[in-house]
Structures are given as C-alpha cells and as structure tokens.
C-alpha cells in the first residue's frame, strides 16, 4: 500500500485547490467543502490501530489540519493479503454528513490495492474493533442502499462512491450491485496516477 498511500497523500495536499479550479472552469461554485479521511490496515493483524479516522475538515480554512493528518499516515503491518476495507467503507458511510443543503453531494472515494476481509465472525470480538460495523456484506449493502430512511446518514440522491480497487472480492460485487458507484480497477503497487485523481475531480464537478 505504501506507493498508493504516498500518491494519495501528494494528491490530497492539492485536492481542494484543484477541485476549486475544476469547478471554476465549469462555471460552478462550491459554497462549502468538508473532507474526512478514513485510513485502514488489517484488524486481523493489529486491531488496536487498524482504523484511523479524522473528523471532517472545512477547507480551505482548516486545510493545515487536513494536511497534518494526511502527513501522519504510513503503511505498516502485514500478514495476509486482504485488508479491512469494508470496515473503513462502513465508517465512511456513517460519517457525520450534512443534510438538507442545496445541491449537496456526499462523495466517498476508496483507494486500495487489496481485497477485503468479509465482515462478521470472531474478529468482531477483538479489542479495538469499532462499534456499529455491519455484521455482514448484506447488512452493509442495505446501509448504503437505504432509501427514505430518516436515520440514513447519506442522502440517497447526493451520494456517490468512487472505487479505485482491484478486481477482487468484495469490490466487484459492490460495483455490480450498488447504485451510484464508479469503479476503476487498480493493480497492486502501481499507486495512484494523476489521471485517476483527475477522474475524482471530474466526477465531483460533474455531479454538482
């Protein structure tokens, strides 16, 4: 993951400025932007620090806090190939999204070069495993697809999920079964090319 993390970090530092430029080119305006980071490793390897999430940062006013958090991220640990990507995705879905705004957009961008461990099982009993994580992929799918539920965190019209993930479980199933998903298959060790960051920026700008 280190090449991907390094590329994501470099892209993150210029993300807000590049998005503002992209929106300006399209004669669109963003009145408020908030960014949250959910970094993950493998709960089976090190449950105490497998999930590292920031609060939402308002940019550009809190961009220094955002950059400080991103700078602290690094690859570590090991073990088997799958990681805890579904737990991270669940945490992102359950973020403190703002609702009832004009032309709001809730966008999750997932970067990984690994498949994900299935949800559920004895791992849920591990010290440090977060509360509120769905116990199965089906439950997570229901949480993403919730429509008309006043308790749903994300707005069903505003939400988007952009996947830069390998052709492996569960990313293939998410791309095929979930709505409002864009999937760009990634390969281990290749990092995040600038063209992919442009896809993220274009997708956000196009949806506003």
Features:
single chain; 208 residues; alpha/beta; Rossmann fold; 3-stranded parallel sheet; two-stranded antiparallel sheet; 34% helix
Structure explained in plain terms:
- The chain is α/β, with parallel strands linked by helices and 208 residues long.
- The protein has one domain (2-121, 130-207): von Willebrand factor, type A domain (Rossmann fold), CATH 3.40.50.410.
- Helix content is 34%, strand content 13%.
- It contains 7 helices and 7 strands; from the N terminus they run H-H-E-E-E-E-H-H-E-H-E-H-E-H.
- The protein has helices at residues 2-13, 15-25, 63-71, 85-93, 137-145, 171-177, 194-207; strands at residues 33-35, 38-40, 51-53, 57-59, 106-111, 159-164, 181-183.
- The strands form 3 sheets. It has a 3-stranded parallel beta sheet, sandwiched between helices. Strands 1-4 form a two-stranded antiparallel ribbon.
- Strand 5 (106-111), helix 5 (137-145) and strand 6 form a beta-alpha-beta unit.
- Helix 2 (15-25) crosses helix 7.
């Amino acid at each position: 993951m280190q090449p991907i993390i390094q590329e994501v970090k470099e892209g993150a530092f210029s993300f807000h400025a590049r998005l503002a430029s992209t929106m300006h080119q399209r004669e669109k305006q963003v009145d408020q932007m908030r960014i949250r980071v959910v970094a993950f490793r493998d709960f089976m390897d090190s449950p105490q620090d497998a999930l590292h999430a920031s609060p939402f940062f308002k940019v550009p006013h809190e961009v220094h806090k955002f950059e400080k958090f991103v700078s602290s991220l690094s690859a570590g640990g090991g073990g088997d190939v799958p990681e805890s990507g579904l737990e991270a995705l669940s945490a992102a879905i359950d973020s403190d999204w703002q609702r009832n705004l004009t032309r709001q957009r809730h966008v999750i961008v997932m970067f990984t070069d690994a498949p994900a461990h299935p949800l559920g099982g004895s791992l849920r009993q591990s010290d440090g495993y977060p509360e509120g994580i769905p116990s199965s992929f089906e439950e997570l799918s229901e949480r993403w697809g919730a429509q008309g539920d006043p308790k749903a965190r994300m707005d069903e019209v505003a939400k988007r999920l952009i996947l830069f993930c390998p052709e492996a479980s569960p990313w293939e199933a998410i791309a095929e079964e979930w709505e409002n998903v864009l999937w760009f298959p990634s390969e281990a060790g290749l990092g995040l090319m600038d063209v992919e960051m442009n896809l993220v920026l274009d997708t956000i700008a196009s949806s506003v």
